[in-house]
Design brief:
The protein has 249 residues and is of the alpha/beta class. It has eleven helices and nine strands. The chain starts with a helix and ends with a helix. The relative contact order is 0.18.
Length: 249
């Protein structure tokens, strides 16, 4: 039996699927990868202090200058076949949670409901002083118009996109919920993650220890391939289209 057929059979017979998605699902929607060794956005900058939480607080303008050059691509991106594949399985009641390392909101745009965003949600921003929330798009428009870092309309505090910067911890409630879903699923599918960022990369192990089948779909190998029951090294869109063909007969 081919890997595609094996995974398709697991999906058909599963009642509790958890998907874990990384940058690879977003790059297929045209969003650049931040961490890739050769093409990642971080490689363009010699000084990355502005994406640490302390550096951001010291000089928020430097972050906003970077963001205004880069983040329109994220806001304008559209879900791809892999996002819709997951959403359709959730509508059928098979998917209980989508755990993602991505901040782009593409799962929600595709119709997914129970999305756990480990690294935050770019669509929202928050004042670090008084906790008032803003639409990030609105904040970026203000930054573009003023050509400086926007400040809170209520108290004048620094406004930060609601994403996890280097030096910040992952949101504890989201992480705990992700661990619980991982330990209780019968099928755990990794899509587009190199599984090197901790502690999120531990989640497939929790699923495996609890008796779930673990599948990894990624263009390149990961440190957890030996743990997985099924490993498919291919693009996500091509893989989900093949899966749909088999599932739908």
């Amino acid at each position: 039996m081919s890997k595609i057929n094996k995974l398709a059979e697991k999906i058909v017979n599963s009642k509790n699927i958890v998907f874990f998605t990384g940058a690879g699902i977003s790059t297929e929607s045209g969003i650049p990868d931040f961490r890739s060794p050769t093409t990642g956005l971080w490689n363009k900058y010699s000084d990355l202090d502005f994406i640490t939480i302390d550096g951001f607080k010291r000089n928020p303008k430097k972050f906003y200058d970077f963001a205004l050059e880069t983040f329109d691509t994220i806001f304008n991106a559209k879900p791809n076949d892999a996002h819709y594949f997951i959403s359709e399985l959730e509508i059928k009641g098979k998917v209980k949670a989508i755990i993602t390392q991505n901040i782009d909101g593409l799962h929600q745009k595709a119709g997914s409901k129970n999305v756990l965003q480990l690294h935050g949600d770019l669509t929202k921003s928050i004042c670090l002083n008084c906790n008032v929330q803003y639409s990030t798009r609105r904040i970026f428009e203000i930054a573009k118009k003023l050509k400086t870092a926007p400040t809170c309309l209520q108290c004048g505090g620094i406004i930060k996109p609601n994403v996890v910067f280097f030096g910040e911890s992952l949101p504890e409630d989201i992480l705990e919920e992700s661990v619980t879903y991982s330990k209780n699923c019968d099928l755990f599918i990794v899509m587009g993650s190199s599984l090197v960022v901790m502690p999120a990369a531990l989640l497939p192990g929790y699923a495996k220890e609890a008796g779930a089948t673990v599948a990894i779909i990624n263009k390149t190998s990961t440190p957890y391939d030996s743990l997985a029951d099924i490993v498919i090294n291919d693009t996500l869109s091509k893989t989900v289209n093949k899966l749909e063909e088999v599932i739908n007969g």
